[in-house]
Design goal:
The protein has ten helices and six strands, in the order ααααβββββαβααααα. By secondary structure, it is mainly α. Helix 7 packs across helix 10. The longest helix has 22 residues.
Length: 246
Amino acid sequence: MRSSQSSNNFNKYINIFFDKDIFKFITSKDKAYKSINKRDKKEVGAFKDKARQDLNTLLKKKGIPLSWQEPICSTIWNPACIVPIYDGIHIEVGDEVVTIEKNMGTDKKYLLKTEKKNSEKKYNIVVSRNVTKKDFIDFINTHWEFLSGLQKTLNLPKDPPIRTSKTLHAIDVIGMRDFKRKSFEEIATEMFDYVSNTENINPTEKKRLLKTFSSGDNVRKNVYERFKTGFLNDSIFVPKNNLKKK
C-alpha cells in the first residue's frame, strides 16, 4: 500500500532536483566526480565529504531540510531515484543515512550498507524541519517495521524500564540495614516518621509509603528483599545471604 508520505517525498524530490541552484550543484559535482580515480578510495571519500559539506551549506541557504542531503548526493555517485524515508526526518546508523530507492511499482526499498549494521549499536532519528506531532507519529507508524527489524539487526540490548517509585527510600532502607545494622522494626519506625512529617509527597504516594513502612515485616519483604534480589541484584551492596530476617 502506497503511503501519502512516499508520494509526497517523490514529488518533493522532483521539485528539489530541478531547482536551478540544486541542479547546477548536481551537474557540477557530477562532472567533477567523473574525472576522479574511482579506485582511489581516499580520493573518492574526500570528494564525497566535500560534496556533502557544500550541499549542506546550499540546503541551509535555501531552507531545504537536511534529510535531503544524501538523496541529492546519491544522484551524483550512484544515479538512482533516492528519497529520504520521510521529509524532514531521517534515520542515521553511524555516519550513514538510511534512504529509500524509488522504483516503478515498488513503494519502498530501504538502503543501508551491511557493514554498518554489524558495527553500530545505536541509531539516531534526526529531525531537520519543523514537524508536527502528527508527522512524528506518522513517521514511526510508517517505518516501524523497518525500525523494529533494524533494532534486531543491530542487536540492541533489551533494557526494560524500572517501574518503581520507591528507589530513594529503598537505598535509605538498605543503607540502614547493611551499614548501620539496624533492625527492620527500627527502620520501619524511622521511615514511617520521616514520611509522616514530609509535606511535599503526593497524597496517594504518601498513603502507599506509610503502608509500606507500617511494620518491619513489610519493610523486609516489600522494600529490602525486593530491591536486593531484583533491582540491585548485581550491585555493590551486601550479597543476598544477608536477607535473613532479624
